[in-house]
Amino acid sequence: MAGGGGDPLASRKVCVIGAGMAGLAAARELRREGHAVTVLEQGADVGGQWLYDPTTDTDASDPHAAAAAPVKVHSSMYASLRLLGPREAMGFSDFQFVPRAGRDARRFPGHREVYLYLRDFCRAAGLADAVRLNTRVVRVAMAAAPLRGDGMGRWVVRSMDAGLWKRCGGEDQVAAAQCVEEVFDAVVVATGHYSQPKLPTIQGMGDWRRKQLHSHSYRVPDPFRNEVVVLVGCGDSGMDIALDLVAVAKEIHLSAKSVESATTPAMSKMLARHGNLRLRPQIDRLCPDGRVIFSDGSRVVADAVMYCTGYRYSFPFLDTAGNFTVDDGEGEGSRVGPLFEHTFPPSMAPWLSFVGIQRKTMVPWYFEAQGRWIAGALSGRWSLPPEEEMVRCAGYTHDVEPHRELMAIISRNTSDDMETFRDRDDDSDNVRRHLQEWYGLAERQAQDGEEEEEEEEEEEEEEEEEDSATAVAVAAEATVHSSL
Ligand SMILES: Cc1cc2nc3c(=O)[nH]c(=O)nc-3n(C[C@H](O)[C@H](O)[C@H](O)COP(=O)(O)OP(=O)(O)OC[C@H]3O[C@@H](n4cnc5c(N)ncnc54)[C@H](O)[C@@H]3O)c2cc1C
C-alpha cells in the first residue's frame, strides 16, 4: 500500500472547487497533508451560501426560467435567516464558533455571523492565498492521457472570470479563448447543493400570469405587502418564510403534501398566533385568473405562489464520460453517484471526490472528516478498498445516518415552536444536553464502526488493517477531537 511501510507521503496538485464551508474544510486538510491546493471560487468572497446576495435569479413570471441550470446567483439565503442549529454544532473541531464582541452573539445567529466565522476560519487556517476568488469553473474533464509519467496530471480544469461568465449569460459552454485551462492531479468538488431550485409539476403553472418564484429567489417580505401568498411546501424554509411574511402579507396559505403530518405543535402554535396564516392541502391546479384550487376543493385568489420545494444536485461543469451521473428522472436531481461513502466515485477514486454532498448534516465535522480522508487517500496514508468493493457499497442517495440523531434534536426544536425555539431562556442546558447526547452517540458509533471493521478485516484475513480508513473512522476521529 502506498504510504505504508515508511514510504514518504505523496504531495499532489489538487483543485478544490468552491470556498464554502465544505471547500474550506477540505482545503485545510489537504494542506495539512502536504498537498499543493488551489481553491477556485466564483464568488467575490469565501462563505458559499452564507455570503448573502441581495440580487436574485428571478424572472417573477417564469419560475422555470429562473430555475434553469446553472443558476447565476449562488446563495439562497434570505435577509432574516437565522441558524436552525445552535452555533456549538456549527464550528470546526479546532476552531469553535464562539460569540465575538461587537458581532451577533446569539446562540442561533443570523447568516452574516456564519459568513464572518467562515472568513475568520479561512484566515486563521492560512488559506487566503490558496483561494482564487471571482473564478467560475466551467469544465472539469479527464485529460486524454495523464500528463506525467507517474500517471498524475489527470484533470483539465477550465475556468473563467465569474463576472464575464455572468455577462455571457451564465453559460458554461463559452469560447475557450475566454478561459484558463490548468492541469491537476486531483479535483475535489465542493460546490454545494442548495442553489439549483427543484420545482413541482402542478397543472396550470405554465399559464399562471401572476408572481411565481422559488424560495431560492426570496430575500425580503416587503414585495409581498398586502398580497395573498401561497407557499408550496411546509419544510423549514416554507415555515420560516411564512413567519417572515405574516407581518406584511394579507394572507398566507401554506400548502402541505400532508396536512396531517404538517400539523405539528409548532404549526398549531403558528396558526393560533397569526390569523392571516392558513394550512392547506396540496394544490390541485393553478388557474390563469389567479385562482389556486387545492386538492380538497377549497380555493383562494392569490397574488403570488412561492415554491419552497427544495433543491437539486447540479454539476454543469463536470464531464466524467458517464462515470458519475445526476439523476434527472423521477427524483429530479435528488440522486447522484455512484459515490462510495458520499465521497468517491469508485472508478475515479481518489482522483475525483466530493465534499458536502450529504443531506441532513448540520455540522462541518463531517466535511473535515471527508477532507482528511481525501487528503490521506491522495497522499497514500490510507488505502481505499478495491474498486469492485467500492462499487458494491456505493450509493446514489445521501442522507447521513450518524447525523439523524442531531437532525432529530433540531426538528424536535422546530416542531415544538418554530417562532421561539431560537430564543429560549433555558436553552443552554437544552443545547448542551442534546450535543452531549450526540457526541456520546458519535463516539459509540465510532467504536462500533471500528469493531465492525476489525471483524470484517479478521474475516477476510487482510493485513492492512492499521492503515485502511473509512469515512466513519475518520469522522469519528474528527468528532472525538471536537469539544463542547
Ligand atoms: C436557506 C438555507 C438555510 C440553511 N440553513 C442552514 C442551517 O441553519 N444550518 C446548517 O448547517 N446549514 C444550513 N443550510 C445549508 C448550508 O448550505 C450548509 O450549511 C453549507 O453552506 C454547505 O456548505 P458547502 O460548502 O457544501 O456549500 P456552499 O455553501 O453552497 O458553497 C459552495 C461554494 O461553491 C461555489 N461554486 C459553485 N459552483 C462553482 C463553480 N462552477 N465554480 C466556482 N465556484 C463554484 C459557490 O459560489 C460557493 O461559494 C442552509 C441552506 C439554505 C439554502
Key words describing this protein structure:
12 helices, FAD/NAD(P)-binding domain, alpha/beta, 5-stranded parallel sheet, disordered C terminus, 19 strands, disordered N terminus, binds flavin-adenine dinucleotide, 484 residues
Architecture overview:
This protein is an alpha/beta fold and 484 residues long. Among the domains are: 13-44 and 82-196 and 311-397, FAD/NAD(P)-binding domain; 211-307, 3-Layer(bba) Sandwich (FAD/NAD(P)-binding domain). 29% of the residues lie in helices and 16% in strands. It contains twelve helices and 19 strands. It has helices spanning 21-32, 63-67, 111-124, 162-167, 236-245, 259-262, 265-273, 365-379, 387-393, 404-416, 427-460, 471-481, and strands at 13-17, 36-40, 131-132, 135-142, 155-161, 180-184, 186-189, 211-214, 228-232, 251-255, 277-280, 283-286, 291-294, 299-301, 304-307, 318-319, 325-326, 336-337, 352-354. The strands form five sheets. The chain has a five-stranded parallel sheet with strand order 3-2-1-7-19, covered by helices on one side. Strands 8-15-9-10-11 form a five-stranded parallel sheet. Strands 6-5-4-16 form a four-stranded mixed sheet. Helix 8 (365-379) packs across helix 12 (471-481) and helix 11 (427-460) packs antiparallel against helix 12. It binds flavin-adenine dinucleotide. Residues 17-23, 40-43, 48-50, 74, 76-77, 81, 83-85, 90, 136-137, 190-192, 194, 237, 317, 356, 362 line the site of flavin-adenine dinucleotide.
Sheet with the most strands: spatial strand order: 3-2-1-7-19
Shape: globular
Q: Which whole number gives the mean pLDDT? A: 85
Distance between the termini: 37 Å
